[in-house]
Amino acid sequence: MDIELIGAPVDSGKKSKGCLMGPDAYRTANLARALRNLGHSVTDIGNLTPDMVAAPDCANPAVHSLAETIGWTQAIHRAGRNAMQAGRLPIFLGGDHSLSLGSVTGVAAATDKPQFVLWLDAHSDFHTLHTTESGNLHGTPLAYVTGREGFEGFPPVNNPIPEQNICIIGLRSVDGAERGALEGSDIRYHDMREIDENGISVLLRRFLKDVADAGGNLHVSLDVDFLDPAAAPAVGTTVPGGATVREGHLCMELIADSGLMTSLDLVELNPFLDERGRTAQLMVDLAASALGRRVFDRPTRAYTS
Ligand SMILES: NC(=[NH2+])NCCC[C@H](N)C(=O)O
Ligand SMILES: [Mn+2]
Ligand SMILES: [Mn+2]
User: Which SUPFAM superfamilies match (predicted)?
Assistant: First the structure.
């Protein structure tokens, strides 16, 4: 694969800061080398900066950092579209999850194929500007990319993702308004109990088969808080009871086997909250699994520090 690393140090999607350090933490954890070792060509285009836009009016007083988030959305959208049009697989190095307002719409704008989205997250991120109580826009991208109303001031979504093409796995923290919207939608979603009862591979394989049958492109959006906080502490919105390290890798290995992934977000890493870089390293290892690393390819533990 021809992979493009796109630094997106978005930190406007919530109040507690630190995700802006994410792209450099992935670089420090040697993401590019891990992917090159798998035989991929890797280009790091450095970090994007947000467009400067005027602040639109917003009826919800809780919403904050609106202009900055719109500016990021535009810049990330362009970068994602360009990478796809150049025949590359973009990996968006976040940055908080509001970066997906731009990444998902950008990659979807670059293809005629049906676009599918796999959302690995403790949260559904299905708020609009009007339903969010926190005012944190990292809780909104899935509603935006499906073309829902309630995003005044944002670029119009010209290539909305059909709800049937979206699968959320890992849910364990959904706000009331999101729940109502989700239940009234065609999005498929699997909470942690369903994972426990069925095994994560059963749920994911079902979705991957649909992507394959439709001949679709697959965007994977991996939120650090999909994982259990014991394994991945470097995130502001920890929720106990998340995916294990092996469940995370199994998802990524199934994605690699499918050959369907065309773009990837690594979001919500807050290196300020990390412990000796272990969450950044885990995210790098998961990205490597998604791009073909297998259990037996992993460096022998005793030989690494
Ligand atoms: N990308 C995330 N970590 N999102 C968390 C969102 C939490 C909550 N639903 C909110 O709107 O504030
Ligand atoms: Mn999220
Ligand atoms: Mn989350």
Answer: Arginase/deacetylase
